[in-house]
Design a protein that fits this description.
The protein has 28 helices and two strands. By secondary structure, the protein is mainly α. Among the domains are: 68 residues, no CATH class; 223 residues, no CATH class; 134 residues, no CATH class. The radius of gyration is 42 Å and the shape is elongated. 23% of the residues are buried.
Length: 631
């Protein structure tokens, strides 16, 4: 008996069981009842009694048949499952698993259906079973999502990521690469690599090889070239890029097609290769590898370069090496002339966006904040006007002004002690490149609308370094962080090496938060790491000794700078300039005794000593110092 027959008999039993059994009627009684009903219809005046309601629809000969069938019905306490609604196609994975099928088409349908429903763990299990059976699934664009799932997790499985990435479709070389739908998925994978796997050069090289085989290299090559140039030396990046390009050329130019189509593929591949070599040369110039870029430019010039790359490369190679501009070398200007009326100062900053530095802009913003009680929107209106983009201005000019305003805002936050906000703003704006791990990385980063974060420059790193040092808990952690930063800077491109402002900032931070001896130790670590500290770092040590009242150390250090002695066998100490001498005169004048000699400063932590120094009358800054020029 089929399932449909059993359900029908079960429904019939429920109907009959709900009725009460009455004595059986004879056939004649039934005929008389129907005749009376017909008579009442044709003779409505004839009164008739109430019509009996039939209670049993079974004939005498059907009772035995019903009883025999009833014995074969299901038990009363059994609740049968409802009949499923008929579907056009049965579920593919259920059908395949139920039948134990191992046909390739069934596995492909199961795998694709699981990926579409975002059941990535089950899909990975099915893929492993499929590979164990010796099968290869049909490539789909949706497999990019599974690869990203295994990459962007707390514990990424790189083998599964590369396995799923190799299951993506293969594209032939063409000129319309930007019109593919898979470029968004590839962009998400590339951004995850740049954000979470910054220094993994081996992983980036393996991903480039997979993209080269699948034909998706035009989407990822530009961004990954920039990443490799930052984290690896030129010798490694040149070999990796050359191997990737050779693999791309071998897989994208097919010999099984017509000569006309082969020529189209060859031209498309040549166009991509030329673009990548141009981009790599520009990146070498931007990161400071000038000799390597010159070698590559001379070697690859015969293969054909575009005019834009040619002009850019030649112009860059003619420029001298840039160094960080210190405040001492700044041209004399009246940007900080606070005696001018505020409207004139605002107009000077709005008319010319290039001359004022970020520190001068920060000073103006501090002065504008003093007008907040009477003019609440003055600061916001000035900021919006400062970064206003007109139709005649280029995008790079607007980016430069926006960066200068952001740097001024970070300087103000640092002055207020809001170091956490400075670090979080840096993380939401740039990639964490050129800096070691920090305890603040455990805090979730701020949300950002920029999907592709750029790399920071050394000027951007100089902004966040003081805040990172201020957030460290102990002096041991501060020394360790500085050593890690200097050790990591050796592996970075020359454009991210510590410059003169970086060394001065590190020394001043150690002096301010620890002591002068720690500042001198930081200066020695910078020189031992192979970097030139610069004049400002030595000046910071000299001024710190003078402000602390350490006369012997001040005399000794001044003499070494005057004689340009060799510092740790690495560099020669720079001689002091007039500005340093003037500042030193003003500082030392506070510690001149009545006979004109230098007073030794005792323990600065003793209250009696500090009180005596405050109460004692000292001469002004113009007081001549004994033997000052012979220190």
């Amino acid at each position: 008996m089929t399932a449909y027959s059993r359900n029908s008999y079960h429904a019939l039993r429920l109907v009959l069981d709900s009725q009460s059994y009455l004595p059986q009627r004879s056939i004649s009684a039934t005929i008389n009842a129907w005749s009376n009903r017909l008579a009442s219809v044709f003779n409505p005046d004839t009164p008739s009694g109430p019509e009996p309601v039939p209670t049993n629809f079974l004939e005498d000969n059907a009772i035995d048949e019903y009883e025999s069938i009833r014995s074969t019905l299901l038990p009363r306490d059994l609740t049968p499952k409802p009949i499923p609604w008929p579907t056009l196609f049965a579920p593919r994975h259920d059908k395949a698993h139920a039948s134990g099928s191992t046909r390739p088409r069934d596995f492909d349908l199961i795998l694709y259906d699981l990926v579409r429903r975002k059941e990535y763990d089950k899909a990975t299990q099915v893929l492993q079973e499929y590979q164990a059976a010796g099968g290869a699934p049909v490539p789909h664009d949706e497999y990019f999502d599974v690869a990203l799932y295994h990459l962007d997790t707390a514990a990424p499985d790189l083998d599964l990521f590369l396995d799923w990435l190799s299951r993506t479709p293969t594209y032939r070389a063409s000129y319309s690469d930007k019109t593919r739908d898979s470029n968004q998925r590839i962009a998400r994978i590339v951004n995850t690599l740049r954000r979470n796997h910054t220094g993994d050069t081996e992983l980036i090289a393996r991903v480039l090889n997979v993209f080269a085989v699948r034909g998706s290299l035009p989407y990822a090559m530009s961004d990954l070239i920039s990443q490799l140039t930052l984290i690896a030396p030129p010798s490694y990046t040149l070999k990796t890029i050359r191997d990737t390009i050779e693999l791309y050329q071998a897989t994208q130019i097919s010999w099984k097609v017509t000569p006309e189509l082969r020529e189209v593929e060859r031209n498309a591949v040549a166009k991509h290769v030329q673009t990548w070599w141009n981009q790599y040369t520009r990146r070498l110039l931007l990161t400071g590898h000038k000799s390597e870029a010159n070698y590559l430019f001379d070697k690859m010039k015969s293969s054909g370069w575009d005019v834009k790359a040619d002009k850019y490369t030649i112009a860059k190679m003619k420029l001298p090496e840039r160094s960080g501009r210190m405040k001492d070398d700044a041209p004399p200007e009246t940007w900080l002339a606070r005696d001018l009326p505020m409207p004139q100062r605002i107009r000077k900053f709005l008319v010319n966006h290039e001359n004022p530095s970020s520190r001068e802009l920060a000073q103006l913003l501090r002065d504008l904040e003093s007008f907040t009680p009477t003019h609440p929107t003055l600061v916001k209106r000035f900021e919006s006007r400062f970064v206003f983009r007109s139709k005649s201005q280029l995008n790079r000019d607007w980016d430069r002004r926006a960066w200068k305003l952001w740097k001024a805002q970070m300087i103000i936050l640092r002055g207020k002690g809001l170091h956490h906000q400075v670090v979080q703003s840096f993380r939401s704006r740039y990639l964490w490149i050129g800096l070691p791990d920090h305890p603040s990385l455990a805090i979730p980063s701020l949300e950002t609308d920029v999907p592709r974060l750029p790399r920071p420059s050394i000027d951007d790193i100089n902004i966040v370094l003081p805040s990172l040092l201020a957030l460290l808990p102990t002096k041991e952690a501060m020394d360790t962080f500085t050593k890690q930063y200097l050790a990591q800077a050796k592996t970075l491109p020359p454009s991210l090496h510590p410059n003169e402002p970086t060394s001065a900032m590190l020394v001043r931070a150690h002096i301010r938060q620890l002591s002068v001896s720690h500042g001198l130790l930081c200066l020695k670590n910078i020189a031992k790491a192979g970097f030139t500290p610069g004049y400002s770092a030595f000046e910071a040590i000299l001024i710190a000794h003078a402000r602390s009242g350490h006369s012997r150390q001040t005399y000794r250090y001044w003499g070494k700078m005057t004689r340009s002695e060799n510092f740790l066998g690495k560099i020669h100490m720079p001689p002091p300039n007039e500005r340093t001498e003037e500042a030193l005169r003003k500082i030392i004048s506070r510690y001149i005794d009545e006979e004109g000699g230098m007073r030794m400063k005792r323990d600065p932590r003793r209250k009696a000593t500090r009180k005596r120094l405050r109460e004692k009358t000292v001469p002004g800054a113009d007081t001549p110092l004994k033997n000052f020029d012979t220190w």
